[in-house]
Amino acid sequence: MLTKTNTTQNDYQTVLSIWEKSAQKTHDFLSKEDFEFYKNIIPQHLDTVELNLWRDDEAIVGFSGVSEQELVMLFLDPDFIGHGYGSKILTWLIENENINQIDVNSENTNAKNFYIKHGFRVSSEDLVDGFGKPYAITHLIK
């Protein structure tokens, strides 16, 4: 059964490990230097969101980060991608946290299509990300 638990700082290493494995699989458009940049910057943002781990029984499936009604982070351990966990987590967040906004890397077409399949639509796009890096961001709304 899929459950969510609030994270503590003791869980941050687990979150960062999941992020790194997931981003290596899904963010192949990042340069090696930018991958390292994000890897180093993410820990600074973990305290700015409602951060949760998602488990199926004892196995940690992934994590999500929410700020108000925006899904800021949703990363799954690559071993659990493609098994319906992302859909279950997103549906729970929409129904229980009223998520209605998501930003996604435009080049991450699988993620972009995933959110569109779940009823989000493109509202706008920026040519660079929030750090001024050359990675377009698609803004999605419900």
Any descriptors?
142 residues; alpha+beta; 4 helices
General description of the model:
There is one protein chain. The chain has 142 residues and is α+β, with helices and mostly antiparallel strands. The chain has one domain: 3-Layer(aba) Sandwich (Aminopeptidase), CATH 3.40.630.30. The protein contains four helices and seven strands; from the N terminus they run βααβββαβαββ. A hairpin with a 2-residue loop joins strand 2 and strand 3. It starts with a strand and ends with a strand. The relative contact order is 0.16. The mean pLDDT is 96.
- DSSP helical segment count: 4
Major beta-sheet overview: 7 strands, mixed
CATH level 1 class label: Alpha Beta
Q: How would you name the oligomeric state of the polypeptide chains in this document?
A: single chain
CATH architecture classification? 3-Layer(aba) Sandwich
Order of helices and strands: EHHEEEHEHEE
Strand content: 25-35%
Low-confidence stretches: none
Spatially, the strands of the biggest sheet line up as 1-2-3-4-5-7-6
Assign the CATH topology.
Aminopeptidase
What proportion of the residues is helical, as a percent range? 25-40%
Organism: Vagococcus silagei
Pfam families: Acetyltransf_7
Keywords: Acyltransferase, Transferase
GO molecular function, one term: acyltransferase activity, transferring groups other than amino-acyl groups
